[in-house]
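check these tokens.
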Amino acid sequence: MSEKAETPACLAKSHVNADEFKLAMRKFAASVTIITTAAGNEIHGMTATAVCSVSAEPPTILIVVNRKTRTHPLIGSAGFFTVNILAEDQQHLASRFGLKLPNQFEGIPYRQSKNTKSPVIHGAAAHLECELTGQVDVGSHTIFLGRVLHCDPSDAKPLLYYDGQYSEIAQIGGV
């Protein structure tokens, strides 16, 4: 299922250093998510902003996960994952799931998905339950492709991450 992305020989050498790249990428405003999965009796989650729609037919998304995270191997072994798009009032969850806590879900209201067994966090702006359909290793990360089995959007506004800070839509767009 895993592929290694090949670099074409015709590409010019990049003169962008990692710090410059990170500064430029901070200009992307992105929804904050918690990617969850369950393998056997183990459940896990991680905060992420690298989530993207790929196709509406069939409904498919991608997530990008650093291979050093504890969640990474569980996604592959489970074959399923859920993307929980956090609501504006859930910044504390984004911070919590960015830490390496032994029991991340302690005191966090969630249910396990019927489709994927992955945790679905209560109060999220939306969640997408996905079956893993492919993966590609690129640098230090893996791009996981997931066919969306079920999704449930709410009326809540999403929590955003922009320029190194959590934000709300009203703060960015004056809405």
Q: What stands out?
A: The radius of gyration is 17 Å. The mean pLDDT is 89.
